[in-house]
């Protein structure tokens, strides 16, 4: 993305953001209201970019998206849901079954495959939402807060699924949880008040942690993040 600015009324939610994202798993962090969802909505086409531009390396790239609160049809069974989502993304009906079986296996969803979505726990539902978003084999996957509100065991299960996404060239993960970034991402962008204040590898971000107090109040990642967002050093 290049020089992307988005305003709601006159207030800038994204302010001249330029970022070359991926390949690999890339994190997007920032405080509440920093503009993370706005940036994601621009990438997936839910918001029209009127100032600046967004381009994918492969111009016909298919993009999968799991929003902050994925809405899945509760009355459908897990396998049907995944097939239905693949079909919605243009997969021919006769090919959806095999693709659903593939993701059900790689996400270890076999035991829920015939359960109705409304009977699933939050973590199970999130895994199904990710499986449904990748069944059509997109090159890019965008996840908005994929582990929010989950208990530690469910969080681990969701992270395991994200790590299984070998076929996806680039996964962008917006999250409040620094552990998600530490465990999943090689690169990270820090958004603050609409401005991209840091982009680089997780190691480069860690190098921003102030030496004093290291590890006393939080992890090195949290200290580095705080130094960037609040100028604390
Ligand atoms: N539809 C809208 N109309 C007006 N202002 C909006 C709208 N959507 C977002 N905003 C404002 O734009 C700014 C960025 O919001 P955004 O939701 O992108 O941030 P965020 O980083 O995703 O926040 P959070 O972490 O709380 O989800 C905020 O100040 C928000 O109040």
UniProtKB/TrEMBL annotation:
CC per GO annotation: plasma membrane
Keywords per UniProt: Antibiotic resistance, ATP-binding, Nucleotide-binding, Transport
UniProt membrane topology term: Peripheral membrane protein
Subcellular location: Cell membrane
Entries under SUPFAM superfamilies matching the protein: P-loop containing nucleoside triphosphate hydrolases (SSF52540)
All copies of domain ABC transporter, residue ranges: 1-218
Gene3D superfamilies (alphabetical): P-loop containing nucleotide triphosphate hydrolases
Superkingdom in the source lineage: Bacteria
Swiss-Prot/TrEMBL GO biological process terms: response to antibiotic
Protein name per UniProt: ABC transporter ATP-binding protein
């Amino acid at each position: 993305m290049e020089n992307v600015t988005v305003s709601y009324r006159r207030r800038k939610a994204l302010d001249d953001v330029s970022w070359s994202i991926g390949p690999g798993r890339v994190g997007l962090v920032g405080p509440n209201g920093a503009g993370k969802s706005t940036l994601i909505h621009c990438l997936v086409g839910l918001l029209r970019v009127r100032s600046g531009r967004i381009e994918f390396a492969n111009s016909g790239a298919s993009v999968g998206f799991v929003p902050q609160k994925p809405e899945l049809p509760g009355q459908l069974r897990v396998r049907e849901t995944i097939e239905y989502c693949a079909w919605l993304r243009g997969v021919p009906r006769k090919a959806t079954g095999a693709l659903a079986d593939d993701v059900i296996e790689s996400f270890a969803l076999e035991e829920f495959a015939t359960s109705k979505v409304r009977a699933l726990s939050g973590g199970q539902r999130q895994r199904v939402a990710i499986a449904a978003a990748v069944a059509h084999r997109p090159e890019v996957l965008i996840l908005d807060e994929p582990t929010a509100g989950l208990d530690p065991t469910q969080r681990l299960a969701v992270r395991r699924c994200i790590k299984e996404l070998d076929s996806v060239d680039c996964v962008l993960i917006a999250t409040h949880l620094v552990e998600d970034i530490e465990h999943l991402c090689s690169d990270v962008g820090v958004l603050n008040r609409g401005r991209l204040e840091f982009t680089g590898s997780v190691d480069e971000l860690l190098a921003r942690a102030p030496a004093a107090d290291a590890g006393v109040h939080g992890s090195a990642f949290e200290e580095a993040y705080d130094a960037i967002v609040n100028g604390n050093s």
